[in-house]
Amino acid sequence: MGEPVLEVEHLSIDYVVGAGRFHALTDVSLRVDPGRVVGIVGETGCGKSTLARAIPRLLPQPPAEVTGGRIRFLGTDLLSYPAWKLPFVRGTGIGMIFQEPLNSLNPAYRVYDQVAEAIRIRRGRDASPKDVPRSRVEPFDYSRGPPPVSTSSALAHPLTVGGLAARSAERAKSARGATWDEALDFLRLVRINDPETILGLYPHELSGGMRQRIMIAMALSGRPALLIADEPTSALDVTIQAQVLTLMKELIEEVRTSILFITHDLGVVAEMADELGVMYAGHLVEYGPVEEVFHHPRHPYTAALLKSSPRRYKADGALDSIPGAVPNLSRLPTGCSFHPRCVLARPECASDPGPPLVPVGTTPGAPATHLSACLFASDVEAPP
Amino acid sequence: MAGSGRPPPPAAPVDDADAREPYPGALPPARRSARADAVAATADKVRRGVVSFLRILWANPLSFVGFALVVVIAVMALLAVVAPGLVLLYPPNQLSTAYHQAPSWAHPLGTDELGRDIYSNVVAALPIDLAIGFSVAGISLVAGGALGLVAGYWDRPGTLGGAVSVTIMRLADIFLSFPSLVLALAIAASIGRTVDGAIVAVLVTWWPYYVRLARGEVLSVKHQPYVMAARAAGVREGRILLRHVLRNVLEPLVVYFTMDVGTVIVVISTIFYVVQVLPYPSATPEWGSMIQAYQPFLSTYPWMVLAPGLAIFVTVLAFSLLGDGLRDILDPRSRRAQAEAGSAMLVRRAEE
After folding, report:
1. What is the pLDDT of residues B26-64, one digit of tens each?
2. A287: CB partners within 8 A, 6+ apart
3. Cis link prior to A384 (omega < 30° from 0)?
4. Residue of A nearest to B330 (CA)
5. What is the C-alpha to C-alpha distance for residues A45 and B233, in angstroms, rounded to an integer?
6. What is the pLDDT of residue A236?
7. Contact criterion met (CB < 8 Å) for B12 and A194
8. Chain A residues with CB inside 8 Å of B13's CB?
9. How far is A166 from chain B (nearest CA, A)?
10. Which residue range is the domain that position B166 belongs to?
11. Domain count within chain A
């Protein structure tokens, strides 16, 4: 497999708001290997977006406060990385897709200007490499070669004032032309019809699905080693969601970038991810290959989540739900934070915080990569 | 669409416009030199910019009036400096024996107690009032806007930026706590009766408004998702501020600046009126001083004081109306002409 692209080790993050302290992330560990897609699911407010933003160090501090752990990107610890160097990691090292496609494009610039900015940033770093972690493998399978070097027409124009003006205009045009062509390529990559027209439009003239496609194109145009998609489809209509998801699924096939895919939709991760992590109240409670987690959940929260998924009990009309409510992150329950709502809870669950993620290993044939944070992982029943 | 009557705009990427055939079987475009191409492309860009600008102005008649008035005022001010003979009927301050004439063809705004033509003096005062209005508002826009950008963008408490931000804002608050006109009058009176002194006096009281406006706008823009998206794309902080934040706070700042030119003219006239910087029979006429000089004749010859008063009124009105129109032009979402052009293009593509 080689060196992992991303390793998060025992990461804990608090939000300090006034006198209150919210434990947004507690002891989260995960690992993204090259070319793999890791999905993270969980309810609203379980710390998914905090995790997504903490990795490229985009969380404003304060209010956020890292209380422990490490984030290693291509072997470099980002938490102890000098702040002025961080922009050089973002974009070309770690790319991001946000959940608000409607506002994630600057309303004042045309699509071309925004895509070109991302392309130019990468070109600048290619031209003068800094000592920052970047992927050493080309994350992309480019069907087209690099844009042809435009032949200078210097000889065609004698050294007159008009000739100089024409030459500089031509140079500007060819410089723009290369970026323009590359922007077109990236728009075609995300299946946008008529990219020539779209590049000249303003974001408000585009639909939400188009904007999200352009966000994806911009994130990919940095050719990052790791792409973090933070609920990329949550703000879209269901039909558009399906289109964008289909696109992302196709892109996963074409692109060798590793992806951390964060969502609250179990169906989405089932189709996309290789590995799946389940989060509850800032804890990663279960982690393993997506098939294993779906068919043999080893944490009662995962089992309850699967059971309450709408597609299972359509015939009965009634949906299962998890009793109780998500705990307040400033006053987490003692012991296991899920025990007040857990069907398997026993007295010791209220005092023993349970093991950190440990291999389940009781089921015959279960891979050692399937981890659970439950004391009674072997008692969890798979939903029918 | 409304754009259908006009010739359709050229396709967006002008680069390869020649490469496509406009319709099947079309003759190949005439060969032109690269120079002619570059010139034609630039001319085309300029033409399209002007057309869309005028179209937006035309959509809002009041802002068109404001724009037209500002153009007339600017041309008259320019001519009054460059070629006074074209806009002035008489040289400024020329005495005659026609005292206290009512408005007539020979003297459109009448004459004063020394037989000077009031119209000529009002127009001769235009350049100085306009120059002061623009310089005070312009310096405030640049200086106050820059301070407000910095104060709004790096305002996290406990950092160097936070300390700078607090210093800037408290300083602005100190100046804002005085009524600006009173403070400006006091400063102008203490500096002495010079035009430069009056400008400095207004400037001192003027910049904090821009700091506040810019900071408030930056505070709302910097939390927009597109700013975080730019940060996530690897754009550095200084560039985010200058490219992504500044561009989105520019619109309210420029609109405020345009309307402010008129306000500055009112305030500076008030200072000239009260402090007597240029007592009226001076080489350069000025509206505030003229009103002060003509005030005694208000009941007997009311048109005298009315003329400079109207000049101030029209100038302020023109800049206010233009400011309203600019808001439409600068906001990409209300660039109706652009949107029209875009949709017309889409329709055309669909037809093809």
Report:
1. 555 555 566 676 777 778 778 877 887 777 777 778 888
2. A30, A275, A276, A277, A278, A293, A357, A369, A370, A371, A372
3. no
4. A108
5. 25
6. 79
7. no
8. 180, 196, 199-200
9. 5
10. 70-336
11. 1
